[in-house]
Amino acid sequence: MKDETQPMFVTFIFIFISIFIVTKLVVSGKHIPTTLEGPFDPTTILFDPSLRRGSDDIPMDDPRLKKNVTSMSPEQIALALSTPSSIWVSWVTGDAQTGPNVTALDPTSVASEVWYGKESGKYTSKTRGNATVYSQLYPFEGLLNYTSAIIHHAKIDGLEPGTKYYYKCGDSSLPAMSEEHEFETLPLPAQNSYPRRIAVIGDLGLTRNSSTTIDHLTKNDPSLILMVGDLTYANQYLTTGGKGVPCFSCAFPDAPIRETYQPRWDGWGRFMEPLISRVPMMVIEGNHEIEPQAAGITFKSYLTRFAVPAEESCSNSNFYYSFDAGGVHFVMLGAYVDYNSTGAQYAWLKEDLRKVDRTITPWLVAAWHPPWYNSYSSHYQEFECMRQEMEELIYQYGVDIVFSGHIHAYERMNRVYNYTLNSCGPIYITVGDGGNIENVDVDHADDPGKCPSQGDNIPEIGGVCHFNFSSGPAKGKFCWERQPEWSAFRESSFGHGILEVLNSTYALWTWHRNQDVYKEDSPGDQIYIVRQPELCSPSKPLKGKNESERGAQGSAAESVNWSWILLFFIVAFVVY
């Protein structure tokens, strides 16, 4: 006979500790809401006029951007996840060239080696990788061409979870090996095993604001970084360099093509190395990575410089892929390649989602650059075509959270599906506020006189599907006249986010504003995102508008296991 006493006791303990923690937080003035309390009334925090909307780029002669190693010594060292037991190490050697005539370096002239081990200075294992170069060529008079230094990618296999490793990379025969670096592997995929903190950044650039963002993020000590597109903003420059501008077409209306100053990529790699040589960074492309050149070639810098687990996730393109980080399955989608339901990316996504085992990776998180839900004037309804093609699939498989950038501000949505409040829809979050040169966005589409026309916000790649709403408060209109009900919180500030997954149903999301970098415990936005698998399981009919999330709290307690109880005791102890 089944013993019913233990589940009842576990349920009682869970409820008791939950009440204890919430009560303590309320008494201490630190109550953090949960999505169970939603949907929330829309809230807007306007731009603080005491702050500047943007800042200039950091110049190339800044010590953080200058090359400070000898020619063939490794620099721009970076990590990326491959599989739960392997990691990519990437680096650059040699000297890039800029000029009217450039000659590519020979990537076979230098080896791609990584030495690694569990003790500092003792490298018990070695691996070899591959090297390549790329060129950015412009067939226009007066424009300068570029060919890169040698870019290396090597994969370390057979790593143990939750373990610190020490490594060097380079070519031992020259000799030209890097200084020692270190990283810690993530836990294996499992229901109650998660990365410590996951940082989320978008539209970073390389300004003084970007520097503050990275300083603040580094202080928060993440174990994984999601970079949701628009990395360097090298395309805010002419090929001759000079000064970057917030608006390329405004400053250079006669440019024959959207030019780039490729050395900014090298400067960005050096700037980021102290962080991403020890913390893996997973990237997805944005519109600033398009970088058109001769013969219609695009995305060359992005595709060559970053290693991503495309092959490992059965994708035939580096524009979209997936990976596991502990009990979280991440899906990274490409908005600037074919996303139609008849295309390769859609077929890959459907198969990838089908294979996810939610008993091993309960959390399902997606990321792509341009947001589907956006109440700012900038890029309003720009990627409506992508939403119409893919949203049903995202909803059907119960994606929990979606991160995007593109809008240079912050916005968190209520749970939503097809522009309707829905208790089983994902939480969409826009974090395109990394600090780039194009300045923070401050206008909302619902502000008087700020609704874009349907001829505005045309994507660089992809179709146009702008529409007027057919129901609700904005029926018959292109824009709402007040903050939409699906927009829970928005603020025009630079910053970054931290996701802390606590167990299989609770995750703490915190958005940190740059102006709060020196303040303790003062997040710009903070909420517990709560999964409800018994209400919203992909194997069950998904619930619609106005079905309360609160009704599932009792059944949620039934699935509690002892590791959760221990977690709550620890949290209670910390709170006291």
Gyration radius from CA atoms, angstroms: 24 Å
- Count the helices. How many? 10
Round the mean pLDDT to the nearest integer and report it. 90
Order the strands across the largest sheet as they lie in space. 1-25-21-24-20-19-18-17
Distance between the termini: 41 Å
Biggest sheet details: 8 strands, mixed
* General shape: globular
Strand percentage = 15-25%
**Helix-and-strand structural type:** alpha+beta
Number of strands: 28
Q: Which parts are unreliable, with pLDDT below 50 for 5 consecutive residues or more?
A: 1-28, 540-576
As a percent range, the share of helical residues equals 10-25%
How would you describe what is shown here?
- By secondary structure, the protein is of the alpha+beta class.
- It has ten helices and 28 strands.
- The protein has helices at residues 5-27, 208-219, 248-251, 263-276, 300-305, 344-355, 384-396, 533-536, 553-558, 562-575; strands at 43-45, 75-83, 86-93, 97-99, 113-117, 125-128, 130-132, 135-136, 145-147, 150-156, 164-171, 176-177, 181-184, 198-201, 224-227, 281-283, 321-325, 328-332, 363-367, 401-404, 410-413, 416-417, 420-421, 427-431, 487-491, 495-501, 506-513, 525-530.
- The strands form six sheets. The protein has an eight-stranded mixed β-sheet with strand order 1-25-21-24-20-19-18-17, with no helix packed on it. The protein has a six-stranded mixed β-sheet with strand order 16-15-14-26-27-28, covered by helices on one side.
- The longest helix has 23 residues, at 5-27.
- The radius of gyration is 24 Å and the shape is globular.
- Residues 1-28 and 540-576 have low confidence and may be disordered.
